[in-house]
Amino acid sequence: MEHEPPPAEELARLDRELAELDARRAQLLTRRAWLLAALRPPAPTAAPGWNPSAWGAPPPGRPGAPAQPWGYVPKQPSTPRSAQNVLLTLGGLLLAVAAVAFTLVSWGSMGIGGRSAVLAAVTLGALIAPVVLLRRGLAATAEALAALALVLTLLDVYAVHAVAAPDTDGLGFTAVASAVLAVLWTAYGLALGKLRLPLPAAVVLAQWPLLFWAWAAGAPALVVGWALLATAVLDGVIALWGKGPGVRVTACVGGSAMGFSALMVGLALSTTASGPLGAAAPGALLLAAAAAALAGAWRAPKGFARTGGVVAGLAAVAAVGGVPAAALSDGWRVLAYLLCGLALAGVVRAGLPRDAARGVLAASGAVVAGALVWALPSLAAVLLGPVTLLSDVWAGSPAGFRSALGSTLPWSELAAAPVVLALVAGLLGSAYRWWPSVVRIAAPSGAREETPKPDGASAAAGTPGAAWTAPPGAGAPWYTVGGAGARRRPSGAALRGAAGAGALALGWGALLLAGVVLDVPYAVAVAGETALVGGLLALAVRGGGSGRGASAVPVTALVGAVSGAVSVGLLSLASEGASYAVFGALAVLFAGAAVRVGAEVPRAVFAVASVVWGTVLTGFAGRSLDLAPHEAAPLVLLVPALTVLLGARLRRNPVALPVELTGALGGLVAVGLAVSDAPFLALVLALCGVLAAGAAVRPERRPAAGCLAAALFVLATWVRLAASEVSFPEAYTLPVTVPALVVGVLRRRRDPEASSWTAYGPGLAATLLPSLAVAWTDTDWLRPLLLGVAALVITLLGARYRLQALLVLGGVVLALDGLHELAPYVAQVAGALPRWLPPALAGLLLLVVGATYEQRLRDARRLKDALGRMR
Question: What is the value of pTM for the model shown?
Answer without folding.
Answer: 0.66
